[in-house]
Design a protein that fits this description.
Distance between the termini: 28 Å
Oligomer: single chain
Radius of gyration: 15 Å
Number of helices: 6
CATH superfamily: Gcn5-related N-acetyltransferase (GNAT)
Number of strands: 7
Structural class: alpha+beta
CATH topology: Aminopeptidase
Largest sheet: 7 strands, mixed
Shape: globular
Strand order of the largest sheet: 1-2-3-4-5-7-6
CATH class: Alpha Beta
Length: 173
């Protein structure tokens, strides 16, 4: 059984160690989430700490999935800051620990972020992910529309350039 809760600014700060553990696991597992190896817990925690101002300001909403007291997944929703973009938001850093995959946690985290986007007035969501990855399968089968692939867009943790698929999803109330 899992629970998914949006983290307040205080809960986010208190959860940085666990969020860093998820990020390190993702990079160690080969996920193209913006970092290259070697990548350690301190570097991951520093990245999360750098997100604190956006979380405190409400520009970045972050959820955590917990199972039996352990954080097993997270997702972020970055709200657009420009006046002409208030109708859209970006899904960022959807991560599920390798030991917790295959139980529908990615879809549950996405559902929480999608509902919150609607509540924030954003009915157009965007994201990007490595082409051919397990994450891409989640989006392709979850109602997302791939609108393009950019060759060699981002490096995998070992530095190899990978193609990236860009997706959008139009939400309805």
């Amino acid at each position: 059984m899992h629970t998914i809760e949006r983290l307040s600014a205080e809960e986010f700060e208190a959860g940085i160690k666990d969020l860093a553990g998820l990020l390190v696991d993702a990079v160690d597992g080969g996920a193209s989430v913006g970092f290259v190896t070697p990548f350690g817990h301190e570097e991951a925690a520093a990245w999360w700490r750098a997100q604190q101002p956006a979380v405190a300001a409400g520009r970045l909403l972050v959820w955590a999935c917990h199972e039996e007291g352990a954080m097993t997944g997270t997702i972020g929703l970055a709200l657009a800051g420009k006046p002409n973009a208030r109708h859209r938001a970006e899904i960022v850093k959807l991560m599920v620990h390798r030991t917790a995959r295959g139980r529908g946690l990615s879809r549950a985290l996405l559902a929480a972020a999608e509902q919150a986007a609607l509540e924030e007035g954003a009915d157009l969501l965007m994201l990007d992910t490595e082409t051919g990855s397990a994450a891409e399968h989640v989006y392709l089968t979850g109602g997302w529309t791939r609108y393009g692939i950019v060759p060699g867009y981002a490096g995998s943790p070992d530095g190899t350039l990978q193609d990236c698929s860009f997706f959008y999803k139009r939400l309805t109330a």
